[in-house]
Amino acid sequence: MALLGYARVSTRDQDPRRQVDELTAAGCVRVWVDHGVSGTVVSRPELDALLGYARDGDTLVVTELSRLGRTVRQLVALVDDLGRRGVGVRSLTQAIDTTPGQGGGIGVLLLSIFAALAELEREVLIERTRSGLEAARARGRIPGRPPVVDTERLAAARVLVDQGQSVVSVAKTLGVGRSSLYRAIERERSQSANAGTAR
C-alpha cells in the first residue's frame, strides 16, 4: 500500500517542481511527471507507466483533478478503472479521496460533482464566446486577432517575390513569420481565383 504521485504540466516551459514538492510532502514514495503533455491527450507516457505500476491498495495522488483529465468522462472512466483494481485516487487541492476505507464512496461522488461543474463551466464559457462572436459579426466587426500580414505588407511582399526574392527572405525583410506570409499569399491567390470563377 503506497502513495504514488502524478504531476503534469501542459507546456515545456512550465515547471512541475511545485507539484512534485507538494506530492512528496503528502507522503508519495515516488512521483511520475508528464512534461509538456496536454490534459486532453489520451495517452500520457508517465501516467501510463504509473497505472502499470500501481497495485491493489495503492493510492494515486495528484495536486488537483485537472492533472488527470479535462473532461468528466476521462476522470470518471479513470477513477472507475482504478477502483476496480483496488487503487484509490486522492486530490490534495479538492480534498477528495476515493481510496476504500477513506470515504471512497463519498470521494467518487464528490469527484463526479466537481468534474461535472468543471465541464458545465467550460460549456458556459464556450457559449459566451460563441454569443460574443455572433454579436461582433452582427455589428460588422470581424472577430479575432488582426492579420499579422496586413494589406500593405502583402503588397510589398508581392512586389519583392515578383522581383525574384524567396518568401523566406521577404518574410525576414518585412518582420513577419514565414508561415504567416505563406498563408497570406495563398489566401490572396485563392480569393483571386474565386473572384475569377464568380465572373
From TrEMBL:
Domain of life (superkingdom): Bacteria
Pfam families per UniProt: HTH_7, Resolvase
Residues annotated as domain Resolvase/invertase-type recombinase catalytic: 2-140
Keywords: DNA integration, DNA recombination, DNA-binding
Any one of the GO BP annotations: DNA integration
Entry-linked InterPro entries: Homeodomain-like_sf, Recombinase_CS, Resolv_N, Resolvase-like_N_sf, Resolvase_HTH_dom, SSR_resolvase
Active-site residues from the entry: 10
Molecular function per GO: DNA binding; DNA strand exchange activity
Family: Belongs to the site-specific recombinase resolvase family.
Name assigned to this protein: DNA invertase
Protein's organism: Cellulomonas uda
